[in-house]
Amino acid sequence: MKILVIQQKMIGDVLISSIICNNLRKAYPNSQIDYLVYASTTPVLQGNLNIDNIIIFEEKHRKSKKELLKLGLQIRAEKYDLLIDAYSKLESWILVYLSNAKQRISYEKLGRNFLYTNNIPFELAPKTNLGLAIERRLSLLNPLELSITIDPIPKLFVSEDENKEALLLFKKHHVKNDRKTVMISLLGSEKLKTYPLDYMAKVIDCIADHTDVNILFNYFPKQIEEAKAILNSCKASTKEKVYFDLLGADLRKFIAIMNQCDLIIGNDGGAINMAKALQKPSFIIFSPWIEKKIWATFEDGLHHVSVHLNDYDPEILANKTEKELKKEALSLYKHFKPSSFENKLKTFLSKNLPSTK
Length: 357
Description:
By secondary structure, the protein is an alpha/beta fold. It has two domains: 2-144, Glycogen Phosphorylase B (Rossmann fold), CATH 3.40.50; 160-352, Glycogen Phosphorylase B (Rossmann fold), CATH 3.40.50.2000. Helix content is 41%, strand content 16%. The chain has 16 helices and twelve strands. It has helices at 11-27, 59-63, 65-77, 90-99, 132-139, 160-172, 197-210, 224-233, 236-239, 251-259, 270-277, 292-295, 309-312, 322-327, 329-333, 338-352; strands spanning 2-6, 32-38, 53-57, 82-85, 103-107, 118-120, 180-185, 213-218, 242-243, 263-267, 282-285, 304-307. The strands form two sheets. Strands 3-2-1-4-5-6 form a six-stranded parallel sheet, sandwiched between helices. Helix 1 (11-27) crosses helix 5 (132-139), helix 1 (11-27) packs parallel to helix 11 and helix 7 (197-210) crosses helix 8 (224-233). It is globular, with a radius of gyration of 21 Å. It starts with a strand and ends in a 5-residue tail after the last helix. The mean pLDDT is 95.
């Protein structure tokens, strides 16, 4: 059997949708499983033997109808038996239409159900602590009636050499190996997903005061000024625990560094999803306009905890549309003070870092 899974978009989406490939491999061990994604997301798929071929959706495919048609015809030539479209937007609809795959599965959406042989209802509320992001992906496997135990957990694969390189980097920066290490997801992918910088500094102070740990910052080089602003707002005693310049040169190096950490705390985003795939405990601070029920995956109140303004001041968000919440996100963030969830953060630290003060 030849199978194509489609998931354009960001790192978190691609990593979570890889569970489709993982479970298909369990069910159909001799099948060919291909995965269509953006080039920027491929590092999270490295080492995943459940995927045979990665097909890259390039910028030219978005900008040129001719190039998109060419890609569609290349997919058609592969003669896929099964196509699962976890992206389900215009770009993928065109590829699905051209694919001529025998079985085509995606979410039920008005006006384009004719493209698919199976249209799965788009669930609006989670049924388990897996979160909607996971549950929705797994629902795309339902028509196949797989006779396996479904594994809902995304996987990242780190090589021995990558781990050794990360350990050498820790040694180079004189990271204390007798302390636990906390990764801070310092900044979101955009300003509207980034906890206010002065508030984040107070969160980091709380971590440093509560626990004797090494603290690493996750940020892109282009975000260095914001990262410095947060560090400068931290207390002197906190700064002594921060290894500001210990960064991975690329995404694979970040994954290896994260693999040496004990947990992650901070803004929702790709770093959080990668940490969870490495089986690291997580404490997430959600933006006011993001739906927690979608991305609060594996929430158990112990190893995976998240906070949202709606948890503490639901009235301020009441009756607002997603568009309104996004427009007002920065002002709404100001109401979401670190003191709101300080006790919850301390409990999380106590449960996941035994050597607390």
